Amino acid sequence: MIFGKRNVHRMFTRLAEFLDPVRMRELEAKLERESGQTRAAEWEVAIGYGLSHVGKVRDFDQKDGRNPDFIWTPEEQPIIVEVTSLSDIALHDHNPVRQFTRELYRLAEKLGVAKYGTLNYQFGSVEDGDRVTVAVPAKKDHVEFFRRTDIKAFFDQVKRDPGCQHTYSFCERGAVSAITYQPGQGCYSSSSYRSYTVPMTYRHAPVFNALKKKERQIRESGAKHPAILFICDNDCDALCQAHTSTVGDRLGMRDIVGLFLNGQPRQMIGDLIWRPAVPAQASRIHAVVWISVKEGWAPFTGRVRIFV
Q1: I need a labelling partner for 278 at 20 to 30 A (CA). Which of 91, 256, 297, 300 fits?
Q2: Residue 7: inside a domain, yes or no?
Q3: What gap in Å lies between CA 41 and CA 1, rounded to an integer?
């Protein structure tokens, strides 16, 4: 848990004073059951708890199942509050680089190659719209890949001549990748592949999909109040504090959210389109707050500290 069980229990107890018992039982079940919804429920409780100290928090009275998370009244104007948490799980599933390299090193250990040198890899990639696909086999194809005669031949070649560098190139998912054996003990392994979790366009999948989903959900609820969306970190690279502003060709959250809410007019330099027009996507979301989580080592204790 981000906030610790004791703190979550304290926040949950206070929130139970304002919300429907059925809703609280649903949240409690999510918190007690380790699943993909546990972190989302924790954030929902934390946001509701915080808002309850600066206004009134209550349920949205509607029975069709499309209710916003809270109605928050800081003074006189009720405000719809939606809470969502984002992770990069879907991106990692689409690009199983970690599983592939883990299996690669396991095989090198099993065949006795690892004691002679190290394996370095350079993975190509392709872009499909706003999604990056790294040129490694899909997860379901890993077993078949490591059964190939050519990958076995590569390791056999290394075993026969461990004092020389060897490279195995392969094509996967539309791009070329390479695994290189570097002789010599004590060498550090290196890797090179394009990041697939850092936003390069404002349509970066986890963030943009969440914004569209919540915009639609609030619109379908029929509520007419202003709406605020809280986007919370569940291990999502786009929410890292280092990426909140544009750095090089990496878009920050400020840019993604700003384009979603307000759009962007086309900008020209003479006859040259400097920046293309981006239509605003939001009609029901009026503000977005994003919260990131940062882990660090606590001095002298060796424990992990979490900063929100």
Answers
A1: 91
A2: no
A3: 11
1 lies in a domain? no
Instruction: State which amino acid sits at residue 227.
Output: A
The reported pLDDT for the residue numbered 201 is 80
- Asked if 18 contacts 60 with a C-beta cutoff of 8 angstroms, the reply is no
In terms of domains, do 206 and 303 share one? Answer: yes
Q: Which residues contact 204 (CB under 8 A, 6 or more apart)?
A: 130, 238, 251, 256
For 284-299, the pLDDT digits (tens) are 999 999 998 876 555 5
65 plus 144 within the same structural domain: no
Q: Which of 210, 290, 203 is nearest to 244 (CA)?
A: 290
φ, ψ of residue 74 in degrees (nearest 5): -70, -35
Question: Which has the higher per-residue pLDDT, 258 or 302?
Answer: 258
Of 65, 197, 75, 69, nearest to 130 by C-alpha is 197
Residues 153 and 301 in one domain: no
In a domain, 186, yes or no: yes
